[in-house]
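STRUCTURE:
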């Protein structure tokens, strides 16, 4: 299926001119003041694991591989990999750490994710755009800091490091963007 380059997102599977499948690691569009807007796509070959970068005009056609997106629940991870279950068929799939990459830090037991299936093999994963974690440790707020301009480092219960506003303290639950690992807001639960 042909789509324009600017509509490609992280986690999509595309087929390049060489006939090989690649999972998109990041896609960024550039709109210069003069000249043609372009989209740069960083991707990893599914068969080879080799990373590559392509640049397309934003209106250029890119072949998106026909993959089926199915909802699965994350069960657990062990030495074999990360285990997911399809809620309709109760079929279980195991994905390797290479395929999940840095998104592994945001997986939580029972989390619903979208797995991209190609020829009955999982080739990609899409996490929910936002997840909630608790702050395990952070520096105390300093008197006189303004909430709007300064952020301080914090460590989540999953071990990931993020920057949070000064009013956030240890034990606070926060919402985190899974695409870039940034603080979104204090959790409302």
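SEQUENCE:
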């Amino acid at each position: 299926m042909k789509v324009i380059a600017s509509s490609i997102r992280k986690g999509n599977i595309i087929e390049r001119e060489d006939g090989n499948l690649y999972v998109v690691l990041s896609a960024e569009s550039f709109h210069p003041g003069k000249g043609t807007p372009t989209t740069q796509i960083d991707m990893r070959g599914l068969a080879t694991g080799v990373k590559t970068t392509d640049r397309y005009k934003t209106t250029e056609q890119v072949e998106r591989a026909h993959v089926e997106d199915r909802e699965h629940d994350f069960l657990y991870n062990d030495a074999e990999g990360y285990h997911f279950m399809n809620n309709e068929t109760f079929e279980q799939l195991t994905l390797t750490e290479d395929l999940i990459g840095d998104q592994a830090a945001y997986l939580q037991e029972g989390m619903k994710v979208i797995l991209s299936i190609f020829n009955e093999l999982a080739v990609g994963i899409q996490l929910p755009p936002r997840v909630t974690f608790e702050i395990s440790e952070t520096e105390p707020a300093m008197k006189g800091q303004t909430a709007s301009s300064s952020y301080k480092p914090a460590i989540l219960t999953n071990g990931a490091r993020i920057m949070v506003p000064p009013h956030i303290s240890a034990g606070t639950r926060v919402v985190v963007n899974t695409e870039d690992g940034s603080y979104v807001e204090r959790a409302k639960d």
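REMARK: The helical segments are 97-100.
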